[in-house]
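Hey team,

Filing this mostly as a record. A colleague (T.K.) asked me to run one chain through the structure pipeline before their review meeting, and I want the input and output archived in the tracker in case anyone asks later how it was produced. No errors, nothing strange. Just documentation.

Input sequence:
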Amino acid sequence: MSVHSKLYEGKAKILYTTDNPEILLADFKDDATAFNAQKRGSIIGKGKINCSISTQLFKQLEVKGIKTHFIDSPAPNQMRVKAVKILPIEVVVRNIAAGSLSQQTGLPVGTVLKQPLVEFYYKNDQLGDPLLTRDRLFLMELATPEQVDEITNLALQINDFLRDFWQECGITLVDFKLEFGLDGQQQILLADEISPDTCRLWDTAETDPNRRVMDKDRFRRDLGKVEDAYQEVLQRVLQVVESKN
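Output structure:
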């Protein structure tokens, strides 16, 4: 399949059109950003690692009946995906208090939530990706009530799977971000990626609050050994996937 022009370039990926209007090519970059791109840098090999992790997780989710935009991965840092119209909503699922939840509520970092918390954020860098209430979301017509109910249910199903999967990897899933899109038939598909860029992951066997971090927080907080952490996550994912085959 031939690649045509660049359709869109984001912080972590470049999307290209192909000779099939319903298929795009996503090129995963090594660029790293934090705090709405106020902090910029690069994580060596991140594109290949995140693409590989996302590929494996999308495949596993498809087996579980979760529809995604994933088609295949023609190269280590590339993914062919179904063309979707991304809903301008970031869906965050939290299992343990950390990050902005702790900062805004005073809940101590590491507090296990009694039940998963699903939050919606407006996908808008200029506004700082603000937290949305359901009423604000409907007021802005970002999604219909039916779509919000569906993505909430999907997010909780994905959380159930990911918590178990990461646990098999010896990793605790603290929280994570999802994006959803609509295909040509207006069907909701899981899009974007699932990786250490979009998940907060802690090494289950480690108690030190800095050493346990295995995600982009190592970059955000200048903890060092970012590449090592990402590579370790990939190796554990591949080991678990291999054990299932």
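Quick notes for T.K.: The first strand starts at residue 3 and ends at 9. The chain is about 30% helix and 35% strand.
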